[in-house]
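User: Predict structure, ligand zinc ion.
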Amino acid sequence: MKKLNVIKTAGIVLAACLFATSGVVNAAEVTNYEVKAGDNLQSIAIKNGLSISQLMELNGSIVNPDLIYTGDSIKISGNKSAKKVNKSNKMGAKANASTTGYAHPLNMPGAPVSSEFGYRQDPTGMSGTQHDGIDLAVASGTPVYAVKSGTVVEAGFHYSAGNYVIIKHQNGQYTYYFHLSSINTYTGQQVGQLTHIGNVGTTGYSTGSHLHFGISSALWSGFENPRNYVAF
Ligand SMILES: [Zn+2]
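Assistant: Predicted complex:
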């Protein structure tokens, strides 16, 4: 009996964002991957250093990307350079963490970025056009980690941020984690780097499962581009 693996998240907007990052895959280097329990296209893509659109290109037979089955054979690229890039991203993140002190909020360098910091059209149409953080489009339930040690100064629900956590760090900066499906910490808790503080979700004004991650110099103001500190 085949077990159905369903991507819990993937709203149309999320899918559109992911499919936008198309790349070319060398068909000569294609190998097979057997779908395991709990896999979805996104997790398989991340594991193999590919984008979802690359997986779709390789697997013309996947009619509905939300429905794949345990035991299915999925074509993946054996492209060494793709894996090498992914690996060097991870090494870059370590180097970055050691110089700036910030780890990746999903501990998953290379996770798909669906929206950058800066000017954009707000997908919900509800707030301003300045995007105060960076969005990482990953499955609901993906663990979220403190990027650096500090003190949780807010942990609760906000109509726009959804379930959210804010951490104040010793250097005076704040980091923000929005739209969580669940919160795993509390106001006042001292957290270490990579303490598990919650899980990715789509609460508040959100069009699909993702983590909104922000960095600022003051509480709720002075937002900076997270790319200045974290290797994504
Ligand atoms: Zn965002």
